[in-house]
């Protein structure tokens, strides 16, 4: 099978169960940018990436509130993008590495949040399952995000519920992601560089289980293809390609401005 590299593919009637893994590329246009590549957060601020390791806890907590609170603030100020909305409207099952809550804001339900959420707080003690909403915005203190500094259940410090490097992923979300990958007819990875595990294992797993797997990226790595778990590689903008997929799935012809509602 040849791999069309520019927007030739749309889901067909055989793709009943569409599962999509998303990354920073889908939220980049909100102002969040991406993590890697030219202008990526980790490339611009390597010391910030270093602070995102579990080994830096608990000293890193103020920086975590500040970084993830700021990111959540940017995302909620902008709101969901055309790509987020198209996935919600086509009823795609969403697995995300993003912590910005934009899929839920677009109307997607049952989202598997592999890397947690910046809109939630949790307890530093991983044996304690206290969780609470956290307000987006600036501030290094838990109180700046409407969260008590000490866990009301066990008294340990609180922190953003975002998964750090060298930390376990939330078990329920990971189980859901594995189940979705194994049950997909069409599995698409959108706006993710595919270098972080276990998220990067989901496409090969879905392909093994019989799904058609597609990588959609503005700048896909040259080696992307069957050897990296993808039947098709689309070099394109998620905010153009996903609305076209949605139209195909919902049987909406490309409307012309002469007949926007399709008589
Ligand atoms: N449409 C499609 N792809 C895009 C777009 C767009 N409009 N804009 C950017 N991209 C692509 C980039 O080409 C890049 O391949 O999105 C990808 C973003 O990759 P990363 O910055 O590496 O982000 P991601 O893969 O989500 O990172 C995974 O790493 O840092 C940790 O926990 C963090 O969840 C994150 C994880």
Description:
There is one protein chain. This protein has about 260 residues and is of the alpha/beta class. Helices cover about 30% and strands about 15% of the residues. It has helices at about 25, 40-45, 45-50, 60-80, 80-90, 100-105, 170-180, 200-210, 240-250, and strands at about 20, 95, 110-115, 115-125, 130-135, 160, 185-190, 210-215, 230-235. It has a six-stranded parallel β-sheet with strand order 3-2-1-7-8-9. It is globular. The structure holds adenosine-5-diphosphoribose. Adenosine-5-diphosphoribose binds next to helix 1, strand 8 and helix 9.
Concise overview:
The protein is an alpha/beta fold and 263 residues long. 29% of the residues lie in helices and 16% in strands.
């Amino acid at each position: 099978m040849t791999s069309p590299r520019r927007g030739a593919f749309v889901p067909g009637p055989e793709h009943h169960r569409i599962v999509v893994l998303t990354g920073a590329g889908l939220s980049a246009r909100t102002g969040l940018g991406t993590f890697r590549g030219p202008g990526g957060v980790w490339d611009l601020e390597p010391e910030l990436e270093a602070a995102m390791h579990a080994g830096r806890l608990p000293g890193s907590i103020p920086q975590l509130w500040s970084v993830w609170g700021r990111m959540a603030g940017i995302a909620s100020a902008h709101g969901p993008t055309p790509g987020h909305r198209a996935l919600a409207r086509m009823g795609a099952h969403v697995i995300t590495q993003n912590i910005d809550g934009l899929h839920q804001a677009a109307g997607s339900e049952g989202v598997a949040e592999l890397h947690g959420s910046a809109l939630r707080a949790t307890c530093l003690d991983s044996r304690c399952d206290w969780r609470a909403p956290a307000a987006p915005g600036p501030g290094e203190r838990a109180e700046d995000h409407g969260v008590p500094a000490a866990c009301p259940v066990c008294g340990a410090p609180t922190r953003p519920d975002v998964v750090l490097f060298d930390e376990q992923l939330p078990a329920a979300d990971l189980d859901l992601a594995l189940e979705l990958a194994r049950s997909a007819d069409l599995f698409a990875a959108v706006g993710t560089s595919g270098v972080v595990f276990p998220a990067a294992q989901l496409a090969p797993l879905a392909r093994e289980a019989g799904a058609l797997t597609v990588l959609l990226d503005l700048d896909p790595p040259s080696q992307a293809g069957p050897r990296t778990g993808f039947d098709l590689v689309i070099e394109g903008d998620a905010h153009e390609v996903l609305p076209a997929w949605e139209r195909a799935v919902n049987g909406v012809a490309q409307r012309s401005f002469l007949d926007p509602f399709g008589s």
